[in-house]
Amino acid sequence: MAYNIFSPGEIDESLFRAVCADFRLDPESTAEMLPYGERGNVGWETRRLYFDLARVQGGLFNTEPVLRQVADVKSALPVTRIFSFGKCNVSCPYCKRDCQFRDDDGNIVVATHVALRDLFALAEGAHARGETVRFSGGDPVVFPKQTLAIAAYLRRRHGAKVSIAHNGSGPAWVKKLAPDLSSAAIDLKAVPEKMGHVMGVSRQLGERIYKLSEETQAVLSAHGVILDVRTPIFGDSPIEEMRRLAETVAKNNPRTCFWTWRLYKAVHGCDWVVPQKEVVFEMLDRISREFPHLWMGVRAKWERGGMMYWLSGQRIAPMEMDDAEERGSGNGLALPRAA
Q1: Is the CB of residue 290 less than 8 Å from the CB of residue 245?
Q2: Phi, psi for 57 (deg, rounded to 5)
Q3: Which terminus of the chain is more exposed, N or C, with fewer CB under 10 A?
Q4: Of 29-33, 110-114, 128-132, 159-163, which range is least confident?
């Protein structure tokens, strides 16, 4: 399948080959990527780091329930360029990111083989525009050497760091990548006994991944990486379970950790309950009072950006955010099954 790389830059060929040798990668190899749209566009997605509004000078999260005031949100927030790898080591039934079609067995059936050098060129283009490369998917843990190689290339050529969106199952891999990370979004999808159901794996494996996610978060906290723990919220998510999850998230350094609750939107093939916004907000009020040092938030307008924030039991509304992202992604888009 033909593909289009978004605004690639010019790579340093000798460094590219040296990094490939370091990580035992064939310079002429490919990696499976999720295209954006029907034209095979690769790397056309961006995501702004909205938690950044809760950070103060020095990059740490504020100890007071106050957001940073900016004149223009769209230009003030860091932009990440999404590298969506086309494989994952779990099969979350609700996972419907743009163009990530899955069959009835959970297999990704739309993915594009992209030349490794084109991914390095995509990274060069992102850096030239002042963006941070963010490895996502699928899940980048399935492409560990490619991720490490691109991160090493950016560090050695530009002194730049990268970001990841990861399901939390790879603490050993994350430890290798941590020195090159500026931020990481790590999933904690449910309490241990329900992790398997939400991730489309066995209960035993789900419980194991919960522990691995805890280890991954601890690694990132130890390295001072900004950590965004992400949890999907369903209409039948009880507050008792959210309290248990809060106890886990609160183990992280509160100056470098943010907890994002992600409202589940109806997805074809799932009969899970869609949450009511105000019910979730009331739960956030209570949990925030019980864990006053933990920054928390929920995406209020997933497609257009924007977020509601909590700290010390206080609900904090940001300034008006009418800043549609040109290209974005989300798990709320109900896509048809592939034929």
Answers
A1: no
A2: -55, 135
A3: C
A4: 110-114
For the beta sheet containing 295-299, the strands, ordered from the edge strand earlier in sequence to the opposite edge, are 46-48, 79-84, 132-136, 162-166, 181-187, 226-233, 257-263, 295-299, 307-311, 314-316
Helix or strand run (H / E) with residue 231 = strand 226-233
Mean pLDDT of 120-138: 97
Of 234, 173, 199, 196, the C-alpha closest to 91 is 199
Q: Tokens at residue 65, please?
A: 């329930």
Domains of the chain and any CATH numbers: 4-316 (3.20.20.70)
* 111 has pLDDT over 90: no
* Per-residue pLDDT tens over the stretch 182-212: 999 999 999 999 999 999 899 999 999 999 9
- List Cα–Cα distances, 229 to 6, 185, 320, in angstroms: 28, 6, 25
Residue/partner pairs of 23-28 with CB below 8 Å, 24 or more apart = 23/145, 23/146, 23/148, 23/149, 23/152, 24/145, 25/116, 25/145, 25/146, 25/149, 26/116, 27/116, 27/117, 28/115, 28/116, 28/117
d(CA 259, CA 281): 14
Structure tokens at 219: 């690694």
Query: Contact, 142 vs 112, CB < 8 A?
Result: no
Cβ-based burial of 32 (10 A; exposed 0-12, middle 13-18, buried ≥19):
middle
CB atoms within 10 A of CB 229: 25
DSSP 75-101: HHS-EEEEEEBS--SS--TT---TT--
Q: How confident is the model at residue 104 (pLDDT cuts 50, 70, 90)?
A: low
Cα(124)–Cα(10) distance, integer angstroms: 7
CA dist 66 and 68 (Å) reads: 7
On average, the pLDDT of the chain sits at: 88
What does the alpha-carbon distance between residue 218 and residue 203 come to, in Å, rounded to a whole number? 23
Tell me the whole-structure pTM to 2 decimals: 0.90
